[in-house]
Amino acid sequence: MTKVIFDMSMSLDGFVKASNATPQQPLGEGGQRLHEWAFGEDERDREILAGGVEDSGAIIAGRRTYEDSLPWWGADGPHPPTRAFVLTHEAPDAVPEGSVYTFVTDGIESALEQAKAAAGEKNVAVMGGPDIGRQFIEAGLVDEIGVHLVPVLFGSGTRMFEHLGSEHIQLETTSVIETPAAIHLGFRVVR
């Protein structure tokens, strides 16, 4: 059964992006530290990354994530050949030819429907930034949350869980894997 998984790396003080982000440093000054675990030497970190990629049949991202990441992802997206559905108010004029990107302008439900159709029996990864994740969580569309807690304090930047509303969202811990580079936490949303 297809699951919708919101998955991001986060600093210990709750930031998914450091301050002073620029097009050259979209994760802010020193923000790349959040992803070092994915490219390090620890076999457990590499297995977690590979498992997430292998289990994902489609990706949902936001326009800002797309714009920030396109120079690194290119036409093939973050996990070739996985389709990437980009939520936006308006599709860009220029898109890499033959790319995996589909631009969705009619809301998160439409993006999810399209992503599920593309994913088949695999999961849909919501990796479009904290605002997209918040929208999916608030709408009750997320089945699992993955947090890669990185041992660093940013002090400022963009928080992962900002403005989630006043409702409590109950979670059940499904996994905790500790490596020197991150503590990988898995949660199931209790309905």
Radius of gyration: 16 Å
Could you describe the largest sheet, including whether it forms a barrel? 8 strands, mixed
Question: Would you tell me which CATH topology applies?
Answer: Dihydrofolate Reductase, subunit A
Calculate the terminal CA-CA distance, rounded to whole Å.
16 Å
Which regions have little confidence, pLDDT < 50, spanning 5+ residues? none
Number of domains: 1
State the name of the first-level CATH class: Alpha Beta
- Strand arrangement, largest sheet? 5-4-3-6-1-7-10-9
Structural class: alpha/beta
Q: Give the oligomeric state of the chains in this entry, treating copies of one chain as homo and distinct chains as hetero.
A: single chain
Strand content: 25-35%
The CATH homologous superfamily:
Dihydrofolate Reductase, subunit A
How many individual β-strands?
10
Q: What's the total helix number?
A: 4
Mean pLDDT level: 93
Helix content: 10-25%
* Shape, principal axes of CA atoms: globular
What sequence of helices (H) and strands (E) makes up the elements? EEHEHEEHEHEEEE
- Architecture per CATH nomenclature, i.e. the level-2 architecture: 3-Layer(aba) Sandwich
